Amino acid sequence: MSEPTSSPAPEAAGSDEPRSLRIEDWLTVIIMALLALITFGNVLVRYFTDASFAWTEEISIFLMILLAMVAGSAAVARDQHIRIEFLTSRGTAARKRALARLGSASVALLLDCWWC
Q: Helices H, strands E: what count in the chain?
């Protein structure tokens, strides 16, 4: 007779992503829901009262910045961040590593100069 097979662990079922990316995914959903609720609420208030909440624009801007940071970090962790791969897709592993280092150094330099 054959041995019974065990079912996969709950963590392994569904995806190979680490648990930390689930946190980013949930934060993204929560931030998007808050943005939608705040915007919809402000539209309703403006429609019915011809006035608007003063704080909604500032909160929306803060949430959009937070959303970009959280979703961007999840994209980098999944290796799905927007980039041009024309030069890296046609080369050796050493060339890919060198170009990745050059790109990382360029970003670090630009961020350092941006704060000046």
A: 3, 0
Predicted confidence (pLDDT) per residue in 33-86, tens digit: 999 999 999 999 989 998 888 888 899 999 999 999 998 888 888 877 777 777
- Is the Cβ–Cβ distance between 32 and 71 less than 8 Å? no
Q: What is the pTM of this model?
A: 0.60
Beta carbons of 56 and 41 less than 8 angstroms apart: yes
Structure tokens belonging to residue 81 = 């961040």
Q: What gap in Å lies between CA 9 and CA 73, rounded to an integer? A: 26
Q: Could you give the angle at the alpha carbon of 16 between the alpha carbons of 14 and 17, nearest 5°?
A: 105
